[in-house]
Design a protein that fits this description.
Length: 254
């Protein structure tokens, strides 16, 4: 479904991705873990078309999309960012944002999008994530971070993409909001078999959802695990863990 072959991304002498090759089958839900600086955001930027690789090829459904622009790929690939304010237009209402997303792949103006989004459909969409339809008339800026991410997920998936990129979508959320988002995303992705890549710093998320784990280190996929491997893995060994013993020791001696 998605195949990256020998992808390299460099900015001057700074080599971000190095001979990265990987393959995701149709319907895969792959969780990607990696430390800061491993190249995770650049990996997504390259898949989405924001960054053109220095070398290598990207295939989506056996079609070469390496030289397609980000806009050209947007009809096939959607992305949710960890910064909730990057996923929507804060000054517009929830209904207006849903309308834009409904028509965005056709590069339409807001009024065209609104005419293509009946109120009944918008109400049905927000109900799927447990929200009251009255929220449709509120500006996105007035919502909590968790609410914005749930609406962002609805926006990204109402026209079901071939590939969904979730870029640390819970990083700015509290545990309750994270749970709500991951619960809805997991059920929706499974129901519609949407091929999904999710980046996270939390190894526990990698052990809780998805059917594969990829570890990104030094600009390449260094390890790949399947669901069958999870019972034999220690989540703390994927990207390391906080040394709480050291912190407590320092606190006692300070």
């Amino acid at each position: 479904m998605l195949t990256l072959s020998n992808i390299n991304v460099s900015f001057g002498t700074n080599h971000i991705l190095q001979n990265l090759s990987c393959h995701a089958d149709s319907g895969d839900f792959i969780v990607i873990v990696g430390a800061n600086g491993a190249g995770k955001s650049t990996f997504f930027d390259t898949i989405a078309g924001k960054i053109k690789p220095t070398s290598g090829t990207i295939l989506l459904d056996n079609n070469d999309i390496t030289n397609l622009s980000e806009l050209q790929r947007s009809s096939m690939i959607t992305r949710i960012f960890q910064n909730t304010r990057l996923n929507s237009v804060g000054s517009l209402t929830v209904a207006q944002n849903l309308a834009i997303a409904n028509y965005s792949r056709r590069n339409a103006r807001l009024m065209n999008g609104m005419s293509a989004m009946p109120l009944e459909k918008a109400e049905q969409l927000v109900r799927t994530v447990g929200m009251d339809p009255s929220i449709l008339h509120r500006p996105m800026n007035a919502l909590s971070g968790g609410q914005r991410q749930l609406i962002a997920f609805v926006m990204a998936t109402q026209l079901q993409p071939k590939l969904l990129l979730l870029d640390e979508p819970t990083a700015a959320l509290d545990p309750q909001s994270s749970t709500a988002l991951l619960k809805h995303a997991t059920l929706f992705i499974k129901k519609h078999a949407i091929t999904t890549l999710l980046i996270t710093h939390d190894p526990q998320i990698a052990f809780s959802i998805g059917n594969k784990i990829w570890v990104l280190e030094n600009g390449t996929i260094s390890k790949e695990f399947t669901a069958a491997d999870k019972p034999h893995l220690d989540p703390n060994h994927l990207i390391g863990q906080i040394d709480y013993d050291l912190i407590q020791q320092l606190n006692r001696t300070s």
